[in-house]
């Protein structure tokens, strides 16, 4: 069975549609297969024959093809893909997607698909900056659609500004990043581009706007599970929600985000590359494999201990006395990263505390060798709840953020990181 990735490319009706030909060539060169859906407007700029010759597949143009609906159907067309790419995504297409309109083949399959979707907008600068378009983009992000921001530059209409389609090479790099970076890491593509945990919070403005653009941010989240036998394990109550919210906020700020996640049932934030692990040692290996990184935020609640011996079979009761459980210490991922030869420029640790929050956090800052400690009071329902209260401890001092929704904590933390990075440069 072929393991080649499958791309469904939807081509909207804008002058930038001519770049679709080069994008198809790059997709094929990467060893992926590509099927094209060409809108009626898109056919004004590029022909089905050209796309068919380049993709080596039939080009689909209408919802009313008896042959296509009998043999494949618009729903099956999208479900065979690993990623649906809308390029160029015109203002009209974005508006229809945001409104749930399904009046042609492209919009119908977009409404019917459960496959991750990447939209690459291209339009006149005035259209891009219009309140309606920005409102539609926010709705699409909230719906879990990944948006690749347009470039800024000269346009075919003679104007200058944001709205220009990125170069095909950049789009191809974004496609590859979302399907896996080629390092052998297996990603769960069914959940890779899930809803944004920022829960409707205002997005960072485009461009400058995107203060972490070009930065690689490495984040850990969730608990680890340390097996005792095939049915039992040592774990904790971490939900991963704070770490996932920080990953979403960092991606919104323009960063390339790698999220190393323990065993949690959360959708991957849009624009984030996720690596799933279970144990502390697996998390450590994944963190080191993701280096180098400009910024590392170690949010995960890593188990301090693991069973020294993992039984191959379920441990049975023998008499009234419980069997002894010998423990071994897990690696200290944060301290190890502080001493790593590829230490991130800004290293942030998290501390889950129930008392003497600031005092314990200052001690951890000195002990671990990181730059900041974000200490959160996990008494009550914090580990599984919607809100968090944190102390930010640095060498320069500390600040307290009273109880806030976790998405807001994430956004404020990313803003503080962005400001710090900017000031240092």
From TrEMBL:
Enzyme Commission number(s) from the entry: 4.1.1.36, 6.3.2.5
Pathway assignment: Cofactor biosynthesis; coenzyme A biosynthesis; CoA from (R)-pantothenate: step 2/5; Cofactor biosynthesis; coenzyme A biosynthesis; CoA from (R)-pantothenate: step 3/5
Domain Flavoprotein: 6-177
Enzymatic reactions: N-[(R)-4-phosphopantothenoyl]-L-cysteine + H(+) = (R)-4'-phosphopantetheine + CO2; (R)-4'-phosphopantothenate + L-cysteine + CTP = N-[(R)-4-phosphopantothenoyl]-L-cysteine + CMP + diphosphate + H(+)
Annotated coiled-coil segments of the chain: none
Binding residues annotated for CTP, in chain numbering: 304, 314, 331-334, 350, 364, 368
GO biological process: coenzyme A biosynthetic process; pantothenate catabolic process
Highest taxon above the source species: Bacteria
One GO location term (cellular component): phosphopantothenoylcysteine decarboxylase complex
Record-level Gene Ontology MF annotations: FMN binding; metal ion binding; phosphopantothenate--cysteine ligase activity; phosphopantothenoylcysteine decarboxylase activity
Residues at the catalytic site: 157 (proton donor)
Keywords: Decarboxylase, Flavoprotein, FMN, Ligase, Lyase, Magnesium, Metal-binding, Multifunctional enzyme
Region (Phosphopantothenate--cysteine ligase): 217-425
Cofactor: Mg(2+); FMN
InterPro entries the UniProt entry points to: CoaB-like_sf (IPR035929), CoaBC (IPR005252), DNA/pantothenate-metab_flavo_C (IPR007085), Flavin_trans-like (IPR036551), Flavoprotein (IPR003382)
Record's function text: Catalyzes two sequential steps in the biosynthesis of coenzyme A. In the first step cysteine is conjugated to 4'-phosphopantothenate to form 4-phosphopantothenoylcysteine. In the second step the latter compound is decarboxylated to form 4'-phosphopantotheine.
Protein name, entry field: Coenzyme A biosynthesis bifunctional protein CoaBC
Name of the encoding gene: coaBC
């Amino acid at each position: 069975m072929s393991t080649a990735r499958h791309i469904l490319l939807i081509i909207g009706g804008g002058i930038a549609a001519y770049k679709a030909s080069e994008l198809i060539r790059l997709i094929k060169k990467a060893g992926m297969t590509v099927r094209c859906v060409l809108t009626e407007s898109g056919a004004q700029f590029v022909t089905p024959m050209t796309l068919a010759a380049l993709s080596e597949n039939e080009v689909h143009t209408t919802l009313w093809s008896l042959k296509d609906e009998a043999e494949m159907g618009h729903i099956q067309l999208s479900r065979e893909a690993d990623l649906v790419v809308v390029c160029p995504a015109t203002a009209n297409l974005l508006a229809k997607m945001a409104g749930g309109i399904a009046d042609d083949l492209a919009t119908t399959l977009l409404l019917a698909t459960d496959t991750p979707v990447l939209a690459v907008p291209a339009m006149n600068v005035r259209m891009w900056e219009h309140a309606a378009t920005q409102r539609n983009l926010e709705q699409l992000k909230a719906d879990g659609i990944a948006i690749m921001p347009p470039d800024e530059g000269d346009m075919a209409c003679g104007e200058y500004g944001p709205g220009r389609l990125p170069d095909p090479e950049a789009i191809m790099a974004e496609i590859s990043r979302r399907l896996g970076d080629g390092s052998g890491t297996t990603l769960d593509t069914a959940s890779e581009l899930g809803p944004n945990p920022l829960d409707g919070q205002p997005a960072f403005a485009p461009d400058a706007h995107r203060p972490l653009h070009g930065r690689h941010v490495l984040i850990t989240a969730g608990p680890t599970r340390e097996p005792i036998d095939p049915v039992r394990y040592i774990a904790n109550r971490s939900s991963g929600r704070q770490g996932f919210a920080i990953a979403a906020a960092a991606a919104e700020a323009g960063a390339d985000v790698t999220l190393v996640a323990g065993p949690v049932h959360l959708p991957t934030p849009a624009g984030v590359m996720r690596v799933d692990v279970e144990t502390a040692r697996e998390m450590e290996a994944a963190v080191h494999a993701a280096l180098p990184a400009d910024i590392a935020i170690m949010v995960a609640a890593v188990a301090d201990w693991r069973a020294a011996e993992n039984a191959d079979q379920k441990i049975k009761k023998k008499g009234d006395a419980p069997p002894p459980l010998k423990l071994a210490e897990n690696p200290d991922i944060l301290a190890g990263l502080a001493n790593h030869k590829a230490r991130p420029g800004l290293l942030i640790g998290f501390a889950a505390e129930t008392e003497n929050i600031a005092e314990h956090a200052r001690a951890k800052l000195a002990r671990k060798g990181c730059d900041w400690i974000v200490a959160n009071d996990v008494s009550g329902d914090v580990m599984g709840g919607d809100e968090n209260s944190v102390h930010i401890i640095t060498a320069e001092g500390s600040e307290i953020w009273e109880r806030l929704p976790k998405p807001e904590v994430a956004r404020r933390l990313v803003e503080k990181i962005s400001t710090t990075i900017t000031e240092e440069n």
